[in-house]
Specification:
Layout lengths: L2 E7 L5 H15 L6 E7 L11 H9 L21 E4 L2 H10 L3 H4 L2 E3 L21 H30 L1
Parallel strand pairs: 1-2, 1-3, 3-4
Helix pairs in contact: 1-5, 2-5
EC number: 3.1.3.48
Pfam family, one: LMWPc
InterPro entries: LMW_PTPase, Ptyr_pPase, Ptyr_pPase_sf, Tyr_phospatase_low_mol_wt
Length: about 160
């Protein structure tokens, strides 16, 4: 049985494709690529059909990650096939929980940085879109830091499901 994770930010061109790429890499390194499906989307459809922001692509490539991506908007109907919906900031968390058709679906939505014990109280990954390349580097650092905890949680779910 495949465990499905979708990362969600605003336009699906910066943070969520970055998180998708990093987490896909982590699941492959852990030997879980056949058990975990990783995806991303945006709360809005402004960039549907576009590739990732060139700065996202650059930072991902410089750090050895895949950067293939086409932006799309998250749909409420997706909750039925997803196991976990990862919001990149508290605004996305609220939007996604409002969009969820059921309480069970709303419980599938979590903040990415909640999986990073060093994150403290600030669980938002700041939107790097209006800044320079350093904001994209900072975003990658936050995503990478949270990915270890997320991988551990997903591994526990997958192994629990497979048992």
């Amino acid at each position: 049985m495949t465990y499905r994770v979708c990362f969600v930010c605003t336009g699906n061109i910066c943070r969520s494709p970055m998180a998708e790429s990093v987490f896909r890499s982590r699941t492959a390194e852990a030997g879980l690529e056949d058990l975990v499906e990783t995806d991303s989307a945006g709360t809005g459809g402004w960039h549907e059909g576009d590739g990732a922001d060139p700065r996202t692509v650059r930072v991902l490539q410089e750090h050895g990650y895949d950067s293939e991506h086409t932006a799309r908007q998250f749909q409420a109907s997706w909750f039925a096939r997803l196991d976990l919906v990862i919001a990149l900031d508290s605004g996305h968390l609220k939007s996604l929980r409002r969009l969820a058709p059921t309480e069970e679906d709303a419980r599938k939505v979590r903040l990415l940085r909640s999986y990073d014990p060093a994150a403290g109280d600030d669980l938002d990954v700041p939107d790097p879109y209006y800044g320079g390349l350093d904001g994209f580097e900072e975003c990658l650092e936050m995503v990478e830091a949270a990915s270890a905890g997320l991988l551990a949680a997903v591994r526990a779910e997958v192994e629990g499901t497979a048992a």
